[in-house]
Specification:
Length: 332
């Protein structure tokens, strides 16, 4: 028998074993997919039961795991949380999260509004949006990145007992991102065309605002794990906090900390761009102080179009340069 006569049987055997390996791998993958699906459902039930034992009602209504075989998706018709002991409640619309097979550790999610909240000491809020999407890079023990992007973000007081809601704000878009950095947590965020309703700030008028910020929460990883509820003993390094409208711009940078007694300490630098434009905005927003604001900023304008000044807070006592500003109450 020639070698040419032996090739077809060998080829068929190789093809058979290749198909067998593929079937086995697909079977293992399928078993893993359905195991993980059942695990998610059981862990969700355990979490809800544990909260229920603590007197907290929470749920992912109509939890569904789908997407087999090319993706892994988790969805709920709505999310809800209610803690009667602390009188805290929150709820949202549908939730959908999807991870593709090619990127299993990079899920993306979207959430439908409105977000309704009820917290002691505040009017119930109704936060809504046209589109809210989040994504993350999963890792252990914390995600490497969590980001959120919203379009058409708005807020108002939640109508209660058929009351008239108070419009609070509207922003064309807003975004935020958190990243662990060693033992700290970095934050970066921005918003555009933020309009604050005059009724929400006592009839005062502000123009549309743009803003961005970058900051580092010191020892943030430990704070996330322990869920610390007090600001005392915490510190943050503001790399840049920027607020602008037209040519007017205010930028703040520097460290801020809260000591064990709740007293704030800060060593900040404030930079202004176009002080006259900043004064015009403040004068409109605080008309009772318009003359003082114009006089003070007229002096700053002599330092150029982009002057800077130090803002220091020592044990709650604030001063702008050599000008004392008063005392800040301790925080909890």
């Amino acid at each position: 028998m020639t070698s040419s006569d032996e090739r077809p049987p060998k080829f068929r055997r190789r093809l058979f074993w290749l198909a067998a390996v593929i079937v086995v791998l697909f079977g293992v993958y399928s078993a893993g997919w359905f195991y993980l699906s059942d695990r998610i459902k059981s862990e969700a039930d355990k979490a809800v039961a544990a909260l229920d034992n603590d007197g907290i009602k929470a749920g992912c209504i109509n939890l569904v795991v789908s997407g087999y075989p090319l993706s892994f998706a988790v969805s709920c018709d709505s999310l809800a949380y209610q803690d009667d002991a602390r009188n805290i409640a929150a709820s949202t619309g549908s939730f959908n999260a999807v991870a593709q097979i090619t990127q299993p550790l990079s899920p993306a999610a979207d959430l439908r509004g409105p977000l309704r909240t009820s917290v002691p000491g505040m009017a119930p809020l109704w936060i809504d949006w046209d589109n809210l999407r989040g994504d993350m890079k999963l890792s252990w023990p914390l995600p490497r990145r969590i980001s959120l992007k919203a379009e058409g973000l708005s807020g108002q007081t939640d109508p209660v007992d058929d009351g008239d809601p108070v419009e609070l704000f509207y922003a064309r878009n807003a975004a935020g991102e958190l990243r662990p950095s060693g033992q700290d947590v970095d934050y970066a965020g921005s918003f555009a065309d933020l309009e604050i309703d005059a009724d929400a700030i006592g009839g005062r008028v502000l123009p549309p605002l743009d803003g961005s910020g970058e900051a580092t929460l010191k020892n943030g990883v430990a704070l996330v794990r322990t869920q610390v509820k007090s600001l005392r003993g915490q510190a943050i390094d503001i790399r840049k906090l920027d607020l602008s409208s037209g040519t007017a711009r205010v930028t703040v940078s520097g460290p801020v900390s809260v000591d064990a007694d709740g007293l704030i300490n800060a060593d900040l630098t404030i930079r202004l761009k176009d002080p006259k434009a900043v004064a015009a905005i403040l004068g409109t927003a605080i008309p009772e102080q318009k003359n003082e604001i114009e006089q003070g900023f007229a002096g700053l304008a002599l330092l150029g179009n982009e002057p800077s000044m130090p803002l220091k807070v020592v044990k709650g006592k604030a001063s702008l340069g050599f000008i004392p500003l008063g005392k800040i109450k301790p925080v909890e």
